[in-house]
Amino acid sequence: MRQDSLRIVDVMADREVCSPAPRTFATQPPAPTSAGVRRAGQNPVSGQRQSGHSLGPPQEAIKSSSRSIANAKARPNRIWESHMKTKHTSHLFALGAIAMLTAATMAGCASGVSGTALASDGFPASAKAAKDNGAIKILEWEGYQDSKFHPSFAKEFSATKLEYQYASASPQFLAKVQTGGAQVDLAHPCGNGVADWVRAGLLAPIDVSRLSNWKDVNKQQADLGKIDGKYYYLPWDWGYESLIVNTAKVPGGEGPSSWADLWDPSYKGQISMEDFGEGAIKFTSQALGLPYPNLSAKELQQVKDKLTALGPNIRTLWSNSTDLVQQMTSGDVSIGYGWNDQYAKIKDAGTPVTYVNPAEGRNGWSCGYVVLKDTKHYDLALKFLDSAISKESCVAAINDFSLGCSNDAAVPAADPKTVKALQLDSKDIIATTHFDEALTPAQRTSFNQLWTEVSAGYGG
Fold first, then answer.
1. Disordered: where is this region (predicted)?
2. 267 vs 197: CA distance, rounded Å
């Protein structure tokens, strides 16, 4: 995440973790001068994993890189660091998270989940929201605690205390909860990992009949959280992972129009790729016409060989969203694998860029909320979620963070330039975006191992 020594403070463990410098395979570009971090599962607000399109959002929303929520126009760096929709996280963190979660599961889920009594409708029993004097504890991406993302709840339940804890990558959400590091009512992970939460027995199903704004939630997004006929995940934010092209610098002046074009020899040393193995394996599979993520051993070897062949074209691997912004605005690279907000920032800086919709389709992330089954405040938690998916909340997400948001009614009310930039008014935008799929533990392990081996050879 940022440059040489950006430190991410883990508020639960009271420790600091230093993130690695971007891995560069040609001349090292100068250090970024702008602050910020971003949802791999990462996201645009926290500094990890996500993406945009042709016209950038309002300038005041793009230029701010402050993580403070005091300023209503600030763009806390998510994805995630990231969609993530991640956002996503580095392959090394993912391997460590898998090991930690496996140990916790073998130990009987160290979180001490015992379960809350169920009401006659099968959902957790609790006091009605209006009579619940308790606090809601939320595991969140930093930046989303602003009341503009739950406006009606903030007004109706102004006396309710919201206690926030934070994670900086999607796997951290599950790790914190499953190991007992976070005991919360709600969490905000990415959709492709929800099945892991359900398998671990951590979640309560969401009674969508109590959500007045559910009728406006995009149904394709909603189905991402439907398991065995029950909704365990409430989609909220989403974004793209695609190619940002500097048309003034790219050889030929146009750049790639498909994922397969990245292997063009004329792009030697021109590409900055996120240090994210799952994303690289996904677009390589698409370029080869292979059925990601269900790859046979033979197909996975094809992907490995193809990614190895991409090495000469890779100039650097970035891990913090500001790295890519700096590299493209300075002209150090002409092609970047990036998210909505990075594209918006690069364009707003005056760099002539396009945001490619590859012939094989754009990739994307989706993140949202889950309810922990041990909550004693189920009805109150649903009031918070209903406010989060309101039109007003999603308009703020679109305008201020250049995100897609699950409430379709927000699109006509949002800033038209941002809507056009993200193509949110396209009726097929969700159907034509390849959102991150849930991976089995075996797939995740093999993909991370492949990326570790391949990326180690880049720059050689």
1. 20-82
2. 41
By percentage, how much of the chain surpasses pLDDT 90?
A: 59
d(CA 122, CA 16): 41
Write the CA distances from 149 to 116, 236, 401, 449, 450, integer angstroms.
28, 10, 11, 38, 39
What's the CATH code, domain 91-238+364-435?
3.40.190.10
d(CA 202, CA 195) in angstroms, rounded, equals: 10
Residue pair 404/236 in contact (Cβ under 8 Å)? The answer is: no
Burial of 409 (0-12, 13-18, 19+ CB in 10 A): middle
Please name the residues in contact with 440: beta carbons below 8 A apart, sequence gap of 6 or more: none
Question: What pTM did the predictor assign?
Answer: 0.74
Return the domain boundaries, the chain.
91-238+364-435
Q: What is the mean pLDDT of residues 71-92?
A: 38
Instruction: Provide the CA 121 distance to its chain's centre, in angstroms.
Output: 33
Residue pair 136/158 in contact by the 8 Å Cβ criterion? no
Four-residue CA torsion sign, 404, 409, 411, 415: negative
User: Torsion angle, CA of 71/74/77/83, rounded to 10 degrees?
Assistant: 110
List phi, psi (to 5°) of 417.
-65, -40
| 177 within 8 A of 154, measured Cβ to Cβ | no
pLDDT at residue 447 greater than cutoff 90: yes
pLDDT digits (tens, 9 = 90+) for 357-405: 999 999 999 999 999 999 999 999 999 999 999 999 999 999 998 899 9
pLDDT-based confidence at residue 120 (cuts at 50, 70, 90): low
DSSP annotation of 69 reads: S
